[in-house]
Structure formats: structure tokens, C-alpha cells
Task: inverse folding
């Protein structure tokens, strides 16, 4: 993550950009209201019911509504309403703002990790992998990943790398998101546009807690979308500590930086960017960018900024119900 970092990345289908609510005594974000919990608005809208992975209680729901509200604000969604309903969160989005990106970004965990690169291995060429929706994949019973080390994967000969599968690996040969925790060593796929492979990444050096704000910007010189991060005071100190270490590796061989020169940006188990750190010190901010031959789209950049800038949810949410409400002409003031 340098002033203008060279990066390699793989990204999900874009989500979208947000601006929204808080409730139950929290300060409200501009452009959003918290519904009292009954009745539908007169204007046409889309209602999304977000169900948490586990029961959160009043405090957890309040915090989650705050996060969702900040995400909608980052995506410039105006006029949204958020309220609690039992264990769920109900979000009403104006019809014109209810696209797939806005809906997808609401319940995504938003866990950000900055990880060191241990090595790269070839793309997964095997057929053995964990079921996509395995009920066994829970942190509570995850015993195998605890024994996983980077040395095991990085020590494989090139001929054996393609068949390597991390514990409970998915069909891409990646570590499943449930095992993508702060202290874990993980394997995540990446693509530069020209080449596709996998990174073996060590335990997180930093988390999203070092970030106080994020914004998607269009670089006037390159014409490419980027995500600008602003760090907290303590976060800036921590980032500079690790930047100096990575830069020392970069300076040894800038024409072909070794693995220790890179800092991977892992967002919810997706490798968003893997830039070489080309400076020893940053003045409270840094830039995340995609590779030159596969830069971020506007939607990708705004989605990353919304997730990173809003902070993580306590648990993942699933959009259990999505419905469209179109009022009758009389309700809208017709005859």
C-alpha cells in the first residue's frame, strides 16, 4: 500500500455504495430516519429483512443498525429507514436506490485484515473440497485450521501446489470465510488479469480498527478508481511500524520485490488488493488500488469504501425477505 501502490487483486461481484441510519438513541446519519416499527411509508420502496447469524439482543441490533446506516450514507442512499423487528433488522430503501449493491452491502460482515504475504502457490486444480454450505464449518468446531501453517503450503514443490487444499478449503482451493479470522493463516485466490494463483497469508498484522474513514476516488492522473483510507492516530502509528518493515524488504529488490514487501488487504475472505509497500512512512492515510491491468470499477471501489469506512458488523446478516411495496393510487394522493 504505497503512495501509488502496485497491486494484485481478486474481487467479488460488486456490492454498492451507502448512506443511512441508526436507532434507539443513537445519532442519526443525514438523509435517513429510523422507523417507529409499524406501518408502511406512502412512497414506493423495497423492504429488506436482514436476519443475523445469531441472536444479538437490543445492544447488538442497535450497533448493527448504526453500521448499516453508515454504509447507506457512504453509498449516497437517501430516504432509507431502518428499524428493529424482533431479532431482525428491517430496512426500507427508496425504489430508485434499491439496487443489488445497496442490498448486498447491508449485511456483509465488513471484517478487514492487513496480512503479510508468506508465498504464492498455483491455482487449485483438484476436485476435493468442502460442501459450499457445510454445517460443520463453524469456528467452534474448527480444529483442523489450528494446525495449518504457512510452511506446509509454501514448502510444496510446484508440481504439488495445484492439488493443495487448506483445511475445509472451498472449490477454489481457498480458506472458507468462517476460518478467515485475525490470527489465522489463510490461502486466498487472486488474479492480476494476466495470471491467476493463490496467496498464502499470515496472521493479520492490523485490522480495520486502524481506519477512521474511507472514500472511493477517481485518480485524475491514471483515470482509475481507488479507495483512500484515513487512519486514526494510533492506527497511523501502527501502520507506519509495519510499513517500515515491508519497505525494508521492498528496498532490497525494488525491481522484483520479495514476498515480505507486500501487504495483503483481506476483506471478508476476499483478497481485494496486494500492494507492494513502496514507502517507509505514511502521513495518516494510504491508498488501496487494483492492478493496472485490472483496476477497480466504480462499484468495487465504492463498495470497499462503504464496508471499510462503516466498520464491521458483529455477525453476518442474511437478506431473508426482499419485497417491493407499491402503494395504491389513493395512498399516493391519487383518486
Result:
Amino acid at each position: 500500500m504505497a503512495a501509488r501502490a502496485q497491486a494484485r487483486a481478486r474481487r467479488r461481484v460488486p456490492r454498492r455504495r451507502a448512506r443511512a441510519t441508526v436507532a434507539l438513541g443513537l445519532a442519526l446519519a443525514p438523509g435517513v430516519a429510523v422507523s417507529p416499527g409499524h406501518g408502511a411509508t406512502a412512497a414506493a420502496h423495497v423492504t429488506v429483512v436482514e436476519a443475523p447469524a445469531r441472536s444479538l439482543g437490543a445492544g447488538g441490533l442497535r450497533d448493527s443498525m448504526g453500521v448499516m446506516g453508515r454504509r447507506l450514507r457512504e453509498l449516497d442512499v437517501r430516504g432509507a429507514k431502518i428499524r428493529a423487528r424482533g431479532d431482525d433488522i428491517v430496512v426500507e430503501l427508496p425504489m430508485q436506490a434499491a439496487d443489488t449493491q445497496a442490498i448486498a452491502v447491508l449485511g456483509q460482515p465488513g471484517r478487514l485484515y492487513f496480512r503479510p504475504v508468506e508465498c504464492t502457490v498455483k491455482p487449485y486444480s483438484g476436485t476435493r473440497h468442502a460442501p459450499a454450505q457445510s454445517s460443520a464449518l463453524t469456528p467452534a468446531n474448527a480444529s483442523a485450521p489450528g494446525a495449518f501453517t504457512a510452511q506446509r503450503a509454501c514448502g510444496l514443490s510446484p508440481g504439488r501446489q495445484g492439488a493443495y487444499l487448506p483445511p475445509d478449503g472451498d472449490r477454489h482451493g481457498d480458506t472458507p470465510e468462517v476460518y478467515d479470522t485475525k490470527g489465522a493463516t489463510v490461502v486466498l485466490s487472486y488474479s492480476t488479469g494476466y495470471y491467476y494463483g493463490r496467496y498464502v497469508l499470515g496472521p493479520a498484522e492490523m485490522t480495520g480498527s486502524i481506519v477512521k474513514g474511507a472514500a472511493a476516488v477517481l485518480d485524475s492522473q491514471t483515470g482509475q478508481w481507488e479507495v483512500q483510507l484515513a487512519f486514526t492516530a494510533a492506527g497511523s502509528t501502527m501502520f507506519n511500524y509495519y510499513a517500515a518493515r515491508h519497505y525494508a524488504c521492498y528496498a532490497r529488490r525494488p525491481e522484483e520485490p520479495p514476498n515480505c514487501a507486500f501487504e495483503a488487504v483481506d476483506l471478508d475472505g476476499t483478497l481485494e488488493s496486494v500492494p507492494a509497500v513502496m514507502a517507509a512512512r505514511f502521513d495518516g492515510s494510504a491508498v488501496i488500488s487494483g492492478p493496472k491491468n485490472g483496476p477497480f470499477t466504480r462499484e468495487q471501489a465504492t463498495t470497499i469504501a462503504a464496508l471499510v469506512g462503516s466498520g464491521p458488523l458483529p455477525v453476518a446478516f442474511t437478506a431473508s425477505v426482499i419485497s417491493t411495496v407499491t402503494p395504491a393510487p389513493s395512498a399516493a394522493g391519487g383518486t
